[in-house]
């Protein structure tokens, strides 16, 4: 069953984050990840607590593929870059069977 990684991202250092942004999609694709949303204009309804900054949504074939993405040896050097250039929160949610 497909799973969806939804990320709310606040980039503080766009130049440094560009390194992460160039490398991560290749790693995610290697594990079946497919971007559905990558930024764009937001319309917020209701109380989100803190307004989202930049939303990203990536579809993975299943939870194992998502986990493999973040365990990939090529991803490990990107973690410090991500942490130094942005703050974010994410959730992984199951899709609807047969959708």
In the CATH hierarchy, the architecture is 2-Layer Sandwich
Strand order of the largest sheet: 2-3-1-4
From the N-terminal CA to the C-terminal CA, the straight-line distance is: 9 Å
Element-by-element helix/strand order: EHEEHHE
* Unreliable sequence segments: none
Beta fraction: 25-35%
Helix content: 25-40%
What is the residue-averaged pLDDT? Answer: 93
Number of helices: 3
Derived structural class: alpha+beta
Tell me the Rg in angstroms.
14 Å
Give the overall shape: flat
Tell me about the largest β-sheet. 4 strands, antiparallel
Domains counted in the coordinates: how many?
A: 1
Q: Could you please say which CATH topology applies here?
A: Alpha-Beta Plaits
Structure characterization notes:
Helices cover 34% and strands 30% of the residues. It has 99 residues and is an alpha+beta fold. It has a single domain, classed as 2-Layer Sandwich (Alpha-Beta Plaits), CATH 3.30.70.100. The longest helix has 17 residues. It starts with a strand and ends in a 5-residue tail after the last strand. The mean pLDDT is 93.
